[in-house]
Design a protein that fits this description.
Blueprint lengths: L1 H7 L2 H6 L10 E6 L5 H9 L4 E3 L5 H8 L19 H16 L8 E4 L8 H7 L4 E6 L2 H10 L12 H21 L4 E5 H6 L1 H11 L46 H7 L18
Parallel strand pairs: 1-3, 1-4, 2-3, 4-5
Helix pairs in contact: 7-8, 8-11
């Protein structure tokens, strides 16, 4: 599927359809591999008076999947997107917004959709909601993959039961994100967990600036925000920022040979974070 997505959503295709979808700037999508800091990002943003956190919504997949219905020609998503004109793209954006509306209870102008598995749909999201913000939560792959392996997810993450599978999944995720950065330069903001922990206030300012939100102190006091959190990181975001999760993989390094081998092509990108010595560990 990723190869097909890359083939359809090339730079020319996206540029020709720029700005044709629904122009509502309300959605903020937080994507990435699970256990990579997405809940922290959500909690920071949801602490802002203009933003509501709505957790992980399934509606991007629902809208894309509906393009496959009632077709006799066998053309499915993503190839079916090639046939969509401005009116249809706007309608799809409206369909997503209507579905998400039932989860919005606070009346804020912005809301967060924290479905991590939306990363293959960045191009589709940008077509139907061109003013939406998209944030890629990133973490050192060994920490991210190990954390996925240690977490028993309730649903939707079948790749997390084997370390080799997780490593291969990460490489595919990274390959697709590289594509999005190439064909949609400046559209997606990458937030590195290690940077967030070691340079917290500056990273929060960067996050708010990207989302075109004014500064509010509540965002750096995110742990004081009272709101339901339904993901595996619910306890962590009730605490001030801490660094003990950085390079946690080193505690298990002797058991991670196969994972390290799989991830070897990507590790040089993250080498600078391996020298961080968390002060509170």
């Amino acid at each position: 599927m990723h190869d097909r997505v890359i083939e359809v959503f090339d730079q020319k295709f996206l540029a020709e359809r720029s700005g044709q979808g629904h122009l509502d700037p309300a959605p903020i999508f937080v994507i990435g591999l699970p256990r990579s800091g997405s809940t922290l990002i959500e909690q920071i943003l949801a602490s802002h008076s203009q933003v509501e956190g709505t957790s992980e919504l399934p509606y991007v997949d629902h809208v894309a999947g509906a393009l496959n219905l009632n077709r006799a020609d066998g053309v499915n998503y993503p190839e079916a997107v090639r046939e969509l004109g401005p009116a249809h793209l706007q309608s799809l954006g409206q369909e997503y917004l209507h579905a998400a509306k039932m989860h919005r209870t606070e009346g804020t102008p912005r809301f967060i959709d924290k479905m991590p598995n939306n990363y293959p749909s960045v191009g589709f999201i940008h077509l139907m909601l061109p003013n939406a913000k998209i944030i890629d939560a990133r973490r050192h792959p060994l920490d991210s993959c190990l954390s996925c392996f240690r977490q028993l997810f309730a649903r939707g993450q079948p790749f997390t039961y084997d370390l080799t599978d997780i490593g291969e999944y990460f490489l595919e995720y990274q390959r697709l994100m590289d594509h999005w950065h190439e064909v949609l330069p400046g559209t997606v903001l990458t937030v590195q967990y290690e940077d967030m922990v070691t340079d917290f206030e500056n990273q929060v300012r960067r996050l708010l600036e990207y989302c075109e939100l004014p500064w509010e102190d509540a965002c750096i006091n995110f742990h004081e925000t009272e709101r339901p959190v339904r993901t595996a990181s619910s306890e962590q975001v009730r605490q001030p920022i801490y660094s003990k999760s950085i390079n946690y993989w080193r505690n298990y390094e002797q058991y991670l040979g196969e994972l390290i081998e799989v991830l070897e092509p990507s590790l040089p990108r993250y080498a600078r974070y391996e020298n961080i010595n968390p002060p509170d560990r």
